[in-house]
Amino acid sequence: MALRSISEVPLPDPATIEQVRISCADIPEGSTRLSRSFYEHLFSMAPEVREMFSADIKPQQQRMADALLSVVQHLDTPDELAGYLRNLGLQHHRELGVLPEHYPYVGRALVRAVSEVSPTWSSSMSSAWVLVYQWITAHMLDGAELAMSSSAPHRAR
Predict the structure, then answer these.
(1) What is the pLDDT of residues 36-51, one digit of tens each?
(2) Contacts from 31-37 at CB under 8 Å and sequence distance 24+?
């Protein structure tokens, strides 16, 4: 999954958003089944990111599950959601050390995890998730870039 800027990634159309919502419809609120699968795939693809998290990954799994389902539910309020995603990207960079090069792994792990837990999974759902993930990522990267630019050392003139 190529990283793209906010200006390059429009909000997916309502039909695409609906497909993503359908893929999550059978995931009960509070369930970490999706996030457990996600982290298994992420750590398998990019083992170096495991050290970003505490030994007890369960609280992080719950935060990720809650955040992801909330994002999916609020895709129809993109302006509010965009601010939340920018803040999340900034927080992930500052607190966990997430870098832009980690996002493609996250996207692939997410699509694989959803494909495992969604009984209605299809290739068109895979495409829908990629489009939604690109939109989410563009906003999170915008926040991360803000964190990187504000933490960069200032040069004396």
Answers:
(1) 999 999 999 999 999 9
(2) 31/65, 32/58, 32/61, 32/62, 32/65, 33/117, 34/65, 34/68, 34/113, 34/114, 34/117, 35/60, 35/61, 35/62, 35/64, 35/65, 35/68, 35/113, 36/61, 37/112, 37/113, 37/116, 37/117
Rounded to the nearest 10 degrees, the angle between the axes of helix 58-73 and helix 33-45 is 110
The reported pTM is 0.86
d(CA 47, CA 43): 5
DSSP one-letter code for 11 = P
CB 141 within 8 A of CB 86: no
Convert the pLDDT of each residue in 69-123 to its tens digit: 999 999 999 999 999 999 999 999 999 999 899 999 999 999 999 999 988 899 9
Distance CA 23, CA 3 (A): 23
What amino acid is encoded at 55 in this protein? Answer: A
Token readout for 11 is 């909000």
Q: What does the DSSP assignment read for 28-67?
A: -TT--HHHHHHHHHHHHH-GGGGGGS-S--HHHHHHHHHH
What phi and psi values does residue 71 have, to the nearest 5 degrees? -60, -45
